[in-house]
Design a protein that fits this description.
The complex is a heterodimer of chains A (about 160) and B (about 900). Chain A is mainly beta and about 160 residues long. Chain A has a single domain, classed as Beta Barrel (OB fold (Dihydrolipoamide Acetyltransferase, E2P)). A 6-stranded mixed sheet of chain B has the order 10-14-15-13-12-11. In chain B, strands 27-19-20-30-29-28 form a 6-stranded mixed sheet, with no helix packed on it. Chain B has a 6-stranded mixed sheet with strand order 21-25-26-24-23-22. Chain B folds into 6 domains: about 200 residues, HPT domain (Four Helix Bundle (Hemerythrin (Met), subunit A)), CATH 1.20.120; about 55 residues, Helix Hairpins; about 180 residues, Histidine kinase-like ATPase, C-terminal domain (Heat Shock Protein 90), CATH 3.30.565; about 130 residues, CheA-289, Domain 4 (OB fold (Dihydrolipoamide Acetyltransferase, E2P), Beta Barrel); about 140 residues, OB fold (Dihydrolipoamide Acetyltransferase, E2P) (Beta Barrel), CATH 2.40.50.180; about 130 residues, Response regulator (Rossmann fold, 3-Layer(aba) Sandwich), CATH 3.40.50. The chains are: A mainly beta (about 160), B alpha+beta (about 900).
């Protein structure tokens, strides 16, 4: 399980969240966690292809505001999405940002985040739908919330995020 | 050996080995539709190709085999082992003939009538005439060929074929056959491989393998660059020398891999002129093949894929699309039909257009056929748009050709084309208008393409510009002599004798908000898109680099300024600018769709060959013939007198589901005595008007040279056409009788009088071209050949609303003419518009000084009409004060 290959830039797990000791056969319940403006979020491990440290990103003029630019991932061109501006947070300084590379409809996208956490099995019993009062942007781009002890993990909807 | 023949042999050898296995498979599973379709296509392709190479023996055998296979495919014949045996015999015969072809470059002699008779018998549902097909043909052919009774694997049978061929050749040699042929046979004997010698000269590699190689090479380059960078940091590194070597090898490898893949598309077009020529002869048509963008570089493998589809499409255009000369003449088109191939890069894709100015697709027949084939119900078809109905021709087995000819019409074709294009991730689009022509557009992604690009920098960002559209580089500002000037706030550059519009790249891309300042040094990349040139202002220019174009991510597809992106040697990602997109963004592109041009051409004036016009001669009131340019007439109809209805004082007829006003040209509708009446139908923007005449006389090619101007309304004047004094009618006048607002310009001007224009140009061609354009735009046009003739008109007291003059003319030139016009009171106040091929700053100044009001580029129809409109409006304003 969790055969995800994280690159060396991965920081030591600093999260206080439970470690992925409870290994499940169902990879659908495994998530890569990340932080965005202090909020812990999760992306299903199945769509994650890579985790990268800070990269050289080429700006793309006239592109939507959320597109940070494109980068070269071993010969493939990957479009970088600034999750900060996608989620309506202050635009981040992505020179230091880490990114989670996801595959969507055959294309690779790199989601720029503050920190990449670890690979976690999240118990489906802790799942809850988005609170209705959640800010519209977040509600549209997240699928629900896991109630971990001490922390909430917002599960991001990759397809919705990339529907720019 | 002839290239065509060599290609044919290579291709056919491949097809044949595929065929053997497919046929055996079919025998086992007689209702395997996919296999059947494959076999049918392979044989069809062989037949099609040998048809135009003039290989009649081969074609006959293939045609007969195809007939049988067609019955298999339609399900009207069960592929029994006996039937398959006969088809296999035909395949073996094809191989035999091919072996002979390869050795002697000519079809070997032989009689296939028994085999063909067998094939026909099978097709008609009888068994083969002789049980032992092999035995029979052996007797009939001078070549003792042991035909397998059981379907044999390809290899065995081919060895047999080449062996018997050698025997035959040896026998033939003493009888005085070419010695060279004997040598070739000897060579093939010494290497008794079953493979065809030609086929062995080339190895085909799948696109995937090359694509993978390319990716690997790209990564190798990146790794090499990183290593070089590391090595540079260390002095006297022991790695330096081997690394240098690695670097060289990598470069060579990269170059090699790229070279294996690129070819100008013209290579795929080589065969087409001959194909078209032969088809033209076969079908009795006049066909002109125009090939544009032949040097557009294309990935070789992509080229392979599109070669056959292109051939198919051109063949379709020639066979079905274009009409016979008589029909074309009757439809008001030049006798010679035109097939245009156009290839270019656009928006990260290669676009190939195959268009013809033929009859277009018959949507009604396609719809009927679709219903007949059960592809759609009648109700569904009724709800479909014309274009959606046309898409049916891409369905397998769809053909509306009434007759199955040797050329095409079996319903293979467009579906094969579509399959092949889609295999490489391309798209195919079809636009057709009945009577006007058909354009098929193939769009192939550039994923496989490599282009040479110029790397530039603007506002700190680097961009690639495809070298193909870069004309030159100009250094401006700083210490350079060239300066960027401004008109209002628009930057321009004086480049030799013309003004080049400039676009600041950083402003275009919204990269800086700083005001446009040109104090510092800048570079102008002179770019050409179609006929339009413009300059891109950039901060720096780097080198050119060979780049592998990759399409941009889907979320960036809307940005039309980029055609793709790529990774440079240093590993950074860079966006590739699309000059077409830039031209469009800044409003420079003036290219209309091919179809629109075709419509315009068809309408403008029929033929312009040799400066003459195709004219329709008719009689309407009186005995003297009248003429109208055929190009203006949409259709000729005969309408029964009793179908003509009256509404108030207007005459109407129900035509194609609409009420069409009918205007009697002779003033009244006298009974012609025939119960029917010829009507010239004029159409524009969905409205039609019928001009009722007495009799259609002829269609002739002649020059309209109006010698006597008429003051009768509706008649431009008299000209000698086909040896007789003929009245040239003023179409616009009659059309306005039906619809007051037929011409927007006409409506905008005084209702009772159309503005009169005098066109002075020494070129007959241009006069013929521009006069109908202006007439159709609502002007009354008089043309004269020389400035002297124009001045004579003035002295005769003729009056016009504006004068349009060429600059370069024999005798008095445009400038002298302008001075003469301004120098005498009669025309002194008239707007005087100069028409010229070139507009340079100096010319402009000189023209204005001589007295011209405006300068208009000579071949820009829109600008001309707009310019005249403006000049007249200004004139009216002046007069009102």
């Amino acid at each position: 399980m969790a055969t995800l290959e994280l690159s060396r830039q991965r920081p030591a797990a600093s999260s206080t969240a439970p470690r992925s000791t409870a290994v499940s056969d169902d990879t659908r319940d495994v998530f890569v966690t990340l932080t965005l403006g202090g909020q812990l979020c999760g992306i299903p491990v199945l769509v994650v292809r890579d985790v990268l440290g800070p990269q050289m990103i080429t700006r793309i003029p006239l592109a939507p505001r959320e597109v940070a630019g494109s980068l070269n991932l071993r010969g493939r061109i990957v479009t970088a999405i600034d999750l900060h501006s996608r989620l309506g947070l202050d635009r981040s300084d992505w020179r230091n940002a880490m990114s989670v590379v996801v595959e969507h409809q055959g294309e690779l996208y790199s989601l720029l985040v503050d920190q990449v956490g670890e690979v976690l099995y999240l118990n489906p019993e802790l799942w809850e739908d988005n609170p209705p009062t959640l800010e519209a942007k977040w509600r549209a781009l997240s699928r629900g919330v896991f109630r971990l002890s001490g922390q909430l993990v917002v599960v991001l909807d990759v397809a919705a995020i990339l529907a720019i | 050996m002839d290239d065509l023949l060599a290609d044919f042999l290579t291709e056919t050898a491949e097809s044949l080995s595929e065929l053997d296995t497919a046929l055996v498979r079919l025998e086992r599973a007689p209702d395997d539709q996919a296999t059947l379709a494959l076999i049918f296509r392979l044989v069809h392709t062989i037949k099609g190709t040998c048809g135009f190479l003039g290989l009649t023996r081969l074609e006959k055998v293939a045609h007969a085999a195809e007939n049988v296979l067609g019955r298999f495919r339609d399900g009207t014949l069960v592929p029994t082992p006996e039937a398959i045996t006969v088809v296999l015999a035909a395949i073996d015969r094809i191989k035999l003939i091919l072996a002979g072809l390869e050795a002697t470059e000519a079809e070997p002699l032989g009689d296939d009538s028994a085999l063909i008779a067998d094939l026909n018998a099978v097709m008609e549902g009888r068994g083969p005439a002789t049980a032992e097909t092999g035995q029979d043909s052996q007797a009939a052919t001078p070549v003792p060929e042991p035909l397998p009774e059981e379907p044999a694997p390809a290899r065995g049978s081919r060895t047999g074929a080449s062996a018997t061929l050698s025997e035959r050749m040896e026998q033939a040699q003493p009888k005085g056959e070419a010695a060279q042929a004997g040598e070739q046979v000897a060579a093939s004997e010494s290497a008794p491989t079953a493979e065809s010698a030609v086929a062995a000269q080339t190895i085909r590699v799948s696109v995937e393998v090359l694509e993978h190689l390319m990716t690997l090479v790209s990564e190798l380059v990146l790794a090499r660059n990183q290593l070089l960078q590391l090595a540079r940091l260390q002095e006297n590194s022991p790695f330096a020398v081997p690394l240098q070597r690695l670097s060289h090898i990598t470069s060579d490898l990269q170059e090699g891999v790229m070279k294996t893949r690129m070819q100008p598309i013209g290579n795929a077009w080589n065969k087409l002129p001959r194909l078209v020529r032969d088809l033209a002869r076969e079908t009795g048509k006049k066909i002109e093949l125009v090939m544009l963008g032949a040097d557009t570089e294309l990935d070789r493998q992509v080229l392979e894929f599109i070669k056959d589809p292109l051939t198919h499409m051109v063949r379709n255009s020639a066979d079905h699309g274009l009409e016979k000369p008589e029909e074309r003449r009757a439809a008001g088109k030049p006798e010679t039909g035109r097939i245009t191939l156009n290839a270019y890069h656009e928006g990260g894709h290669i676009i190939i257009e195959v268009s013809d100015d033929g009859r277009g697709l018959n949507t009604r027949r396609i719809a009927e056929k679709a219903v007949a084939l059960g592809l759609a119900t009648e109700a569904e078809v009724a709800a479909l748009s014309e274009q959606a109905i046309q898409q049916f021709i891409f369905r397998p087995g769809f053909s509306t050709a009434a007759q199955v000819t040797a050329v095409s019409g079996r319903g293979v074709g467009m579906d094969v084309v579509k399959t092949n294009i889609e295999k490489i991730g391309g798209t195919i689009d079809l636009r057709s208008r009945e009577g006007v022509g058909t354009t098929i557009t193939i769009k192939i992604p550039l994923t496989l393409a490599i282009v040479s690009a110029l790397i530039v920098e603007a506002a700190g960002e680097r961009f690639a510009i495809p070298q193909i559209s870069v004309v030159e580089l100009v250094r401006a500002g700083g210490r350079s002599e060239t300066r960027i000037e401004r008109i209002d706030r628009t930057p321009v550059l004086r480049l030799r004798d013309s003004l080049l519009p400039l676009v600041r790249l950083s402003a275009l891309l919204h990269l800086d908000s700083a005001a446009d300042v040109f104090e510092s040094e800048a570079f102008v990349v002179v770019t050409k898109v179609g006929a339009q040139s413009f300059g891109l202002i950039v901060d720096r220019v780097f080198d050119t680099e060979e780049i592998v174009v990759k399409p941009v991510a889907p979320i960036l597809r809307d940005i039309t300024l980029f055609s793709g992106n790529t990774i440079l040697g240093d590993g950074s990602v860079i966006m590739i600018l699309d000059p077409n997109g830039i031209a469009r963004a800044v409003g420079l592109a003036a290219t209309g769709s091919a179809e629109r041009t075709a419509v315009a051409e068809a309408r403008s004036e029929g033929s312009t060959e040799g400066g003459s016009t195709t004219l329709l001669l008719f009689r309407a009131g009186g005995t003297e013939p009248k003429a109208v340019p055929l190009g203006l007439v949409a259709r000729l109809e005969e309408i029964e007198n009793d179908r003509i209805e009256r509404s108030g004082d207007r005459l109407l007829v129900q035509y194609r589901g609409q009420l069409m006003p009918l205007v009697p040209l002779s003033g009244s509708l006298d009974d012609t005595g025939f119960g029917r009446r010829p009507v010239l139908v004029f159409s524009d923007r969905g409205r039609s008007v019928g001009l009722a005449v007495d009799e259609i006389l002829d269609v002739v090619e002649d020059r309209i040279d109006v010698q006597l101007l008429s003051d009768r309304p509706g008649i431009i004047g008299s000209a000698v056409i086909a040896g007789r004094a003929t009245e040239v009618i003023d179409t616009a006048y009659w059309l306005r009788l039906a619809f007051d607002d037929w011409f927007r310009h006409g409506a905008a001007n005084e209702a009772d009088r159309r503005p009169r224009l005098l066109v002075v140009d020494d070129s007959a061609f241009f006069r013929q071209m521009v006069a109908p354009v202006l007439t159709a735009a609502g002007y009354e046009v008089t043309t004269v050949e020389t400035a002297e003739a124009a001045l004579r008109l003035r002295d005769q007291g003729r009056m016009f609303d504006a004068v349009i003059s060429d600059i370069e003319m024999p005798g008095l030139d445009g400038f002298a003419f302008a001075r003469a016009v301004r120098g005498s009171p009669a025309w002194a106040h008239l707007p005087l518009i100069a028409l010229t091929g070139r507009v340079s700053e100096a010319d402009l100044a000189r023209g204005r000084e001589a007295g011209f009001t405006d300068y208009i580029a000579k071949f820009d129809r829109e600008a001309l009409i707009a310019g005249i409109g403006q000049a007249l409006a200004a004139q009216t304003a002046v007069e009102a004060h």
